[in-house]
């Protein structure tokens, strides 16, 4: 797919700001992550989803992370349920309200948390909700690939270089990634972003924009942005009847839309802050970068 056709496709799915919609239609996004050590990641993912254009973001985190995340922004709806005794039962009813879910930002690697998230993935699968998996969510998936087998909804995995190598080792080489599942897209992040999936039509590479700065949090900005675009790309479709190729294309274009947006934010922030740039500086440029790429 060439750049111009993908950008035009993205533009055609962006909901218009014409006053015809109600709160929530532009996206209700879920972020499953946030732990004692990691509170910034779910914030970056959630606030980026909002600033790209989602209406509401729900963060499901451990109780130790909730107050901290709430203090970062009043825009995020924070649920301190991830470490509750009945976490799966407490969280599952909320999932029905969500259009797309990101698992992983700030999740941590506690065994009990992984047990809860494994059950939530099964629930997400049964509810046919588009899913983005990043960070420690990828660590969990790589340990048990069966968790994402036979998903009917689109699934996007967003590994960095190390996570990608770990995933490839698990499946016996990158050439085998397309056997993960026909609705699964792997978005390899790096100096050049690249898509791996079963559909050749949906594959692309891009090194547009960006900088040499590799501060933490950029992947979280990306995963939240992908979630909003993924909702837009699938909101007017019958997710149960979309063909695997259509789902792969929707996922791939969502990744491309977020990739060039976040890389442009990186480029703009780096131009001002240079070596001192951090992920929060990039968020300031989401609106400007979005307008330049996609208009209002």
Based on the coordinates given, report the CATH architecture.
Answer: 3-Layer(aba) Sandwich
User: Can you count the beta strands?
Assistant: 9
Task: Tell me about the largest β-sheet.
Answer: 9 strands, mixed
Task: Name the poorly predicted regions.
Answer: none
How is the largest sheet built, in terms of strand order? 3-2-1-4-5-6-7-8-9
Helix proportion: 40-55%
What structural category arises from helix and sheet content?
alpha/beta
Q: Which CATH class is shown?
A: Alpha Beta
- What characteristic shape results from the CA principal axes? globular
Strand content: 5-15%
Number of helices: 11
Annotated CATH homologous superfamily: Ribokinase
CATH third-tier fold name: UDP-N-acetylmuramoyl-L-alanine:D-glutamate ligase
What is the chain-wise order of helices and strands?
HEHEHEHEHEHEHEEEHHHH
As for the number of domains, it is 1
Mean of residue pLDDT? 94
Family: Belongs to the NnrD/CARKD family.
Keywords: ATP-binding, Kinase, Lyase, NAD, NADP, Nucleotide-binding, Phosphoprotein, Transferase
Catalytic activity: (6S)-NADHX + ATP = ADP + phosphate + NADH + H(+); (6S)-NADPHX + ATP = ADP + phosphate + NADPH + H(+)
GO molecular function, one term: kinase activity
Structure in a nutshell:
This is ATP-dependent (S)-NAD(P)H-hydrate dehydratase. The chain is of the alpha/beta class.
Write the layout of secondary structure elements.
Elements: H1 3-13, E1 28-32, H2 40-52, E2 56-60, H3 63-72, E3 77-79, H4 87-95, E4 100-103, H5 111-127, E5 131-133, H6 136-143, E6 155-157, H7 161-171, E7 184-188, E8 193-197, E9 205-206, H8 218-234, H9 244-273, H10 279-283, H11 286-294
Parallel strand pairs: 1-2, 1-4, 2-3, 4-5, 5-6, 6-7
Antiparallel strand pairs: 7-8, 8-9
């Amino acid at each position: 797919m060439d750049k111009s056709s993908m950008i035009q496709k993205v533009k055609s799915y962006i909901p218009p700001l014409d006053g015809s919609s109600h709160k929530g239609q532009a996206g209700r996004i879920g972020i499953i992550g946030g732990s004692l050590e990691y509170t910034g990641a779910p914030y970056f993912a959630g606030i980026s989803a909002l600033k790209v254009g989602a209406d509401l973001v729900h963060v499901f985190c451990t109780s130790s992370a909730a107050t901290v995340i709430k203090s970062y922004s009043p825009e995020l709806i924070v649920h301190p349920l991830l470490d509750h005794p009945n976490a799966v039962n407490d969280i599952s009813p909320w999932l029905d309200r969500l259009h797309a879910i990101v698992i992983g930002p700030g999740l941590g690697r506690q065994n009990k948390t992984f047990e809860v998230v494994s059950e939530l993935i099964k629930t997400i699968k049964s509810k046919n909700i588009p899913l983005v998996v990043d960070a420690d969510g990828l660590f969990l998936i790589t340990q048990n690939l069966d968790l994402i087998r036979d998903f009917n909804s689109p699934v996007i995995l967003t590994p960095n270089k190390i996570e990608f190598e770990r995933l490839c080792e698990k499946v016996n080489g990158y050439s085998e990634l397309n056997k993960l599942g026909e609705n699964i897209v792997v978005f390899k992040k790096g100096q050049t972003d690249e898509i791996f999936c079963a559909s050749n039509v949906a594959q692309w590479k891009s090194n547009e924009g960006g900088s040499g700065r590799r501060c933490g949090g950029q992947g979280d900005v990306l995963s939240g942005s992908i979630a909003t675009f993924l909702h837009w790309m699938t909101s007017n479709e019958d997710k149960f009847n979309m063909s695997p190729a259509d789902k792969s294309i929707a996922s791939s274009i969502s990744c491309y839309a977020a990739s060039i947006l976040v890389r442009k934010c990186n480029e703009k922030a780096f131009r001002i802050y240079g070596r001192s740039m951090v992920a929060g500086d990039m968020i300031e440029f989401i609106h400007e970068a979005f307008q330049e790429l996609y208009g209002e």
